[in-house]
Design brief:
Number of helices: 10
Radius of gyration: 20 Å
Helix content: 25-40%
Distance between the termini: 37 Å
Bound molecules: S-adenosylmethionine
Shape: globular
Largest sheet: 8 strands, mixed
Length: 320
C-alpha cells in the first residue's frame, strides 16, 4: 500500500447498512420505492461514470469546466492547511482539479458508500499525489458523520459536487447540509447544484439515447438479484424519468411492464402492470432558492459560479 494512503476505514454507521432491510421496507409500501443510495455498488459506480461521459449529461462537463476556471479563487477561499473532505466522492476526477490548486492541504478525506470502488480510485490518486495524506472513508453521509479528527484538528473544506444534494427533498437536503456544516470545524463547503432549466434538456439528460441511465436504474434490481438472490426479471421493468415541473425535479422510476411477482428474501411481492417503483429524485434549484436553503441550514453564501448558459452552479458556503 502507498505510504500516504491510510487503510480505508468503515464508519460504524456503515456497518449497520442493510440493503435487504431497506429494500423489503420500500417494496412493502403502498407506493413502492427503493432508496437511491443503493444504486452504488462497484457496477453502479462504473455505470455512473459512463453517464458522466454521455453527450446529453451536461452536468459533469459543466461542473468540471467551472472548477477548472475558478480553481485558484476556490483555493484561496479554502485557505491553507485545510483537510478537504469530499462527500459522495465517486471517481475523484473533480477533486484532482482542486488538489492541483489547493494551498498545502493537510489531507484529503473522500467518503463514499461504494466501498470497493472507492478503494480502487483512491489507490490511483495516491500514486499521482505521493505527498498527500489520503484517508478514504467508506460510509453513508446520511448517517451521523463520524470523520476521524486529524492531529491539531485542522479546519475542513467540504466538497460535495455532482448535484448529489438534489437527491434529497428540500427539508432533508437542509438537514444534511446542517450536519455537514457541523462536521467542518469552521471551514466552508463547496457544493455543485444543478439549475432549473428547459424541461426538454433535463428530460434528455435522464433519458439518454444509449440507454445507460436505464441500465443504471435497473442496477438496483440487478444488485438485489446478485447480492440477495432475488428474481427480478430485468426485462419486465422499464426505466421512466419524467420532469415534475411543479416540484422542480426529475423523478426516476422502474415501471412494471406486466403483472408479475418477485421473490426476495423468502417473501413474494406482487407488481401490477404499469405499477411504478420510485428510485430517485433529482431536484433542481435556482441560485436564489439554493442560497435560501443554505441559509436555513446555517451556512453563509459567500461566492457562486455559473456557466454562460446557466446550466449548473457551484456555491462556496461558509460555516461560521
Ligand atoms: C451523483 S454521484 C456523484 C459522484 C461524484 N461526486 C461526481 O460529482 O461526479 C453520487 C456519489 O455519492 C455516493 N453516495 C450516494 N449516496 C451516498 C450516501 N448516502 N453516503 C455516501 N455516499 C453516497 C455515490 O456512491 C456516488 O459516488
Amino acid at each position: 500500500m502507498d505510504t500516504n494512503l491510510a487503510r480505508p476505514q468503515t464508519t460504524a454507521s456503515a456497518d449497520q447498512d442493510d440493503f435487504a432491510g431497506s429494500l423489503l421496507d420500500g417494496l412493502r409500501k403502498s407506493s413502492k420505492e427503493i432508496a437511491c443510495k443503493y444504486f452504488y455498488d462497484q457496477t453502479g459506480s462504473r455505470l455512473f461514470d459512463a453517464i458522466c461521459e454521455l453527450p446529453e449529461y451536461y452536468q459533469t462537463r459543466t461542473e468540471t469546466a467551472l472548477l477548472a476556471r475558478h480553481a485558484e479563487e476556490i483555493a484561496a477561499l479554502m485557505g491553507e492547511d485545510v483537510e478537504i473532505v469530499e462527500f459522495g466522492a465517486g471517481s475523484l476526477r473533480k477533486v484532482r482539479i482542486l488538489l492541483g490548486a489547493a494551498r498545502s492541504p493537510r489531507a484529503y478525506t473522500p467518503m463514499d458508500i461504494s466501498g470497493e470502488y472507492l478503494c480502487d480510485v483512491v489507490r490511483s490518486l495516491a500514486a499521482d499525489h505521493p505527498a498527500l495524506t489520503l484517508r478514504p472513508l467508506v460510509g453513508d453521509f446520511t448517517r451521523p458523520l463520524e470523520i476521524p479528527v486529524l492531529p491539531g484538528s485542522p479546519r475542513r473544506a467540504g466538497f460535495f459536487p455532482g448535484s448529489t444534494i438534489g437527491n434529497f427533498k428540500p427539508d432533508a437536503a437542509m438537514a444534511l447540509l446542517r450536519r455537514m456544516r457541523t462536521s467542518l470545524n469552521g471551514g466552508g463547503l463547496l457544493i455543485g447544484v444543478d439549475l432549473v432549466k428547459d424541461p426538454a434538456r433535463l428530460h434528455a439528460a435522464y433519458n439518454d439515447a444509449a440507454g445507460i441511465t436505464a441500465l443504471f436504474n435497473k442496477n438496483l434490481m440487478a444488485r438485489a438479484n446478485r447480492e440477495l438472490g432475488a428474481d427480478f426479471d430485468l426485462d419486465g421493468f422499464a426505466h421512466y424519468a419524467p420532469y415534475n415541473a411543479a416540484a422542480h425535479r426529475i423523478e426516476m422510476y422502474l415501471v412494471s411492464l406486466k403483472r408479475q411477482s418477485v421473490n426476495l428474501c423468502g417473501q413474494r411481492f406482487e407488481f401490477a402492470q404499469g405499477e411504478p417503483v420510485h428510485t430517485e429524485d433529482s431536484h433542481k434549484y435556482t441560485i436564489e432558492s439554493f442560497r435560501e436553503l443554505a441559509v436555513r441550514a446555517g451556512l453563509r453564501p459567500r461566492a457562486v459560479w455559473t456557466d454562460q448558459d446557466r446550466l449548473f452552479s457551484m456555491h462556496w458556503l461558509e460555516s461560521h
